[in-house]
Amino acid sequence: MEEGPDSQGDSASSSSASKPPSFDINQLDTSLDEAEFDIPTVEKPPTLESILNEPDDGLEEEELPLATAAVHLLKADSGESSSISSVESMETRRRERLRIPKTIHGSVLKPSKLKSVSAQVLSAADRVDAGMPTAIAVSSLIAIGTSHGLVLVFDAKQVLKWCLGSTAVGAQYGAVSALSFNRDCSRLLCGFAKGQITMWDLNTGKLLRTITDAHPPGTAVLHIKFTDSFVLAVCSDSGGSVFELEFKRLIGVRSCESQCLFSGSRGEVCTIEPLHMNYTIKDHPMQDVMVLAMASLSKVLLVTLRPQLKVMFTHPLKGDPATLPQLAWQFVVIQVSERDRVIDPVLAFGRDQTVYFYQVICNGPMDIRASGLQKIQLPYKLLGIAWMNPRTLVCLDKAEKLHIMDVRSEEELEVIDVSEAQLVYSTSIFKSLATGGNVSQALAYAGEQACYQSVVSHGGQVFLLGTKAVHIYTLRSWKERIDVMVKGNHYQDALALALSFYEGKAKAVIGLPSSHSKRSQVVSQLMMDILFDFVDLSMTKLCPEKGKIEELEDYYQEIVPVCVDYCLDLKKTDVLFGRIYERFAVDVIAKGTFLECLEPYIQTDRLTAIPPAVMKDFVDHYESRGMLDSVESCVVHLDIASLDIHQVVNLCWSHSLYDAIIYVYTRGMHDYTSPLEQLLAQLGAAVSRGKQLTDNQIRLGNKLLVYISCCLAGRAYPMGDIPSDQESMVKDEVFKCITMLHTKDHPESESAYPHLRTLLQFDTREFLNVLALAFEEPEFNDEAGIQRRQRVVDILLQVMVESIGFSPTQVGVLFTFLARQMARHENTIIVNRVLFEQVLEFLSNPADESRHEERQQALMELIHAGGLAQFDETRLLRLAENAKFYRVCEYLYEKRREYHNILLCYIKDPARRYHAFSFIDSIIQSPGYSDGEKKALQEEALKHLEDLVSIDCKQAATTVMASLQGSLRTVIAKLKDKENVLFEFLQGIMAYREASGSALHPEKQITLDPDVVELYIDLMCRFRPGDVYNFIKMNEGYRLEETLQICRKHKVSEATAYLLEKAGDIQGAFGILLQNLHNNLKQAIEVLQEADSQVSDIDVLFSKLELELYVIVQLCQRNSGKMDKTAREALWFPLLEAIMSPQRKLKDVADKSRLDHFKDMTHHVLNSMMGYIAPPDMLQKIMHDPAYNTGKFGEIKELIIGMLENYNYEETLMATCKNLLYHDLYVHLRSLTRAANRGFVPRGDQCNLCNADYTMPSNPTDADGIIVFRCGHCYHEPCLRAVGSIHLLDGEETFCCYLCSNAKRSGGQLTSTRFHRSLSNPSQELRNKNKRDKEQAKEMSLDPHHVAAFENMRRAMKTPSRMAILSELAKPESASGYHKPLSVFQNENFRLRLAPPPPMELG
Hints:
By secondary structure, the chain is of the alpha+beta class. The chain contains 51 helices and 34 strands.
């Protein structure tokens, strides 16, 4: 017999127990309207996205309470609509959320403490040694387990009801590890750290059962959960197994039967969560089904316990090994169709940073399935999850922060740090320390921060069990969230949050009716109260008392838009322009700022009506600030009924606000012609004066053109459409206005058609474009419309052709317009052909040179429009040529495909002559032209080559070489008589040659004949002699002798000297440069001897001398290394004589400072020649010079000291070089010596060839030698001889490693060494005694291996061989003074690196 009767008896007895009725779950108002929520049979289940996504305007709270019967311990009057509707897809929701700006959610959760419960738990720990809290369970009662085995039970008023157990039980069972109430809170199950389970009667406080065999011994109880059945529970232990507990009572004896649902050997289950039904929902298909969710470290399972045990769903779980899986159930109202709704459970499960949502669909006890809904990726790692209501989920991360999340939008509403709560962790329970720690390493590692028994959700509240207190977090009501911000003086944020409530966009809403009308009424009133308080505070306490006007304006710029925004959102413009405007109007700055802030709202059409009084203040303020343009832009957006017409019209006329004038007349008075007539009169007066129009007048004319175009097209100006019943009338009136013969009350001097004439004179082209658009309207295409169109054409001809006052361009524009209209409307527009003849003659008159480009453009447009199609093209071409209309000629020649004549047009047209080259290239290179056309163009281009060269010589040369057929010599012969043109052409050829190649691709450079290059050099000597030297120096391709003759003929000295040096005549080149230097020195002496010579002239002269001297010195330095001593002295001493001789002639000059230039040049020559002339010879030359051999030693002191310093520097440089070389040699020899003396370690004990153990020879008489190589390989000497791994060097036998030498030959990575030693026994010593004596008697020297290693080291050096440098320094100079031409010291770029390399260790 089952325990059902006993349970009923217990329930009956509990009815008389003292229990707070307000928290009795059976007495709560959680019943549903059966008529409305009788769950229908659903043929098609909802889609994956239909569960968590219902819009906020669902059922009202009064109509549908939460399906989970929210019971609040501290506050019971909160609620939110729980229905969630479908959307198309999750991705669509994400994209929509991206477009929504960041909203303000305020403080969503209200934190508090259960002070009485916390105090009594601490008191119990002190008085009865209850221990620290370890687990908590919440229903209509609160149970808290302790570490010493006690359970404290509190009622909803935080009054201690029972203290269950004792410390003696705690010593036997361990800490309380899990707690669970049954459905009516009459029973309490307690799990302990040592594996025991107890059941308590909460009505009497008696112990009903102690269960010790429900699961394997030695494991702690991690979870214990009652199901909806009074006799069925489930538990899980630290071994990862899950058990079903069925309670029975037979003949007064209570028992418990245990059944294993899941074995921990298949993966440890970390958490379990049974689904608790709400039995007030009648006829729900899951009422007879018991569902259990289990989660291990790798997967989630859903199983049905009743009516039969069955696995209905599995899902893999992946994540950080240090994280535990999480489970949470919630019933959700799902709208299946417009009228039908169902309530289905949704399971949220996750691990690490991922949360999944699955709906459980039950069509019957045997037909249950899970459907995926949503997946959320979090930026933090999960520690726990709990539902607050069907739309709000709370996530606890590993940093002990609560994240409140809206499930539908995946938006994070608030983050609260709960680390101060000092959360209780079940680490010791998950490690099962009380039973010896016999758990898996994975479970122990993941359970470091297990808090399943410390984080509990119930009735829309989250309870956190801390070490010293119990913390509770409740969703605030919508008004509380606003009040929190208002108390913190965050009025703008409070208004933004309230607006989200008003619009139904807020998240986690509690206590607000979801009916739109009720919600709008309640929230709107609160927002108005907040707004009034905000305005009052902004004008009093929050307003700066002192400050600049700009600072006050900036302050009000932050305040006023807030008021305007929310008043417009709430449609409370009466409040905006009533109480709020009156409050701001008290302060002048605030009033002005308020009026200015209205402008953007008016221009965006958010504000379309302003009371007349405020509008008057608005206009007056902008007029005082000189911002009338802004008034105009605002007037055209306002409702005309809200304006003072008289005030606005007077203002607009007085300040030329044309858009506002037109808007007021057309919208307010429905008068479309009066403003047009008056404004055209103003424009006509300005045009008739013949002066340059002002910007304001041009703006007026442009607005009138747009206005006329809009009216004739049926559009309102400046925006919108003309009412359909007035459209035809408006078009007719506006057309009559612009084509009227005379204005009202016109003077006798007024010309005919004044309005049309005014518009044509203002902008002919744009006005005719307006007419062209109007001619497309239906009104101009019926029979009457065709007559009106012809009438307009006749008027235009009468006004512009038969009278004066219009330019050729304007006349051309008119006939272009007529030609286009005639082509578009065939046989409906009649124009006399004689008029086109007259226009053609007028435009192409060659005698009229004025407005040439305007007349040509007008003729081009007329031709393109087809207005001259009836005329002969030959005649047109002749007229265009006479008028020099080259673009017209080009157009006509192109029709004839006479491209050679088009080239003439380009050449003759000054504005487009540079385009001739691109035209030639485009025709020649394009395949769309015939060979005859290309040949004719080439001949014409060659015929006018002189003109092309005069345009651009480089482009002409490029065109000749790339596009024109014919040899270069032919072109040169053609231009031979015109040397200046030929020179420019050859200059272009040289530039083309340079551009055709590059340093990377020299083969692409074109090759010119030497005589062509020499001809160019000859011409350059005539026209640009200063460029000859640089050209021949930088280019090749000329013959040396012929070029030298050309330079000598034209006396280009620098180029001649360069060529002589290139030919090997060093003395000849030196003589020419020295002669030039003598001439300039002679000129300098004459200038210095003149008493009245200017200092600037002297400086310029010496600069020229220094430049020439540097050129000669470089010549001498380049060639001294190739000469003997006599030849070198023949170069340097004449140069030194040339510099020193002027000083002798100027000894008597009064101003001695002028001789400093000569002394500086003398020092430069001496320093330059010291590397090539012996110092004694130089000193002798100086001492015998009359300029220095007289007078005191002080006069030549500086010269001699400079020479000695140079000598000391070179001596120091040589000593440093020797020291570096000696140091390097020592370092490398030391490294080689260490390597040679290093001991060798064999790799093994066997010979690498025969594999015999040489440490224990098989034959005691075996006296074979053992050879060990540096690489570590060991061999018997006979083995090496047998394989031929021996060499004879200098009469001595040398062994080499067999394995390494073979690897090297086959391309392996092993390196062989020829260094070896032998481990010998006594007999081997005797055998080799004579050989060792011979070796000791020989002179010590490096063997070939050391020599090879030293050679490799030397080659690896990055610097040049220092040994070679040292050897060269050690050799005395020969008697002839001959220097090796390849010596490093003769290199101009020689640089000695003084930093020594790091020592190299050889291993």
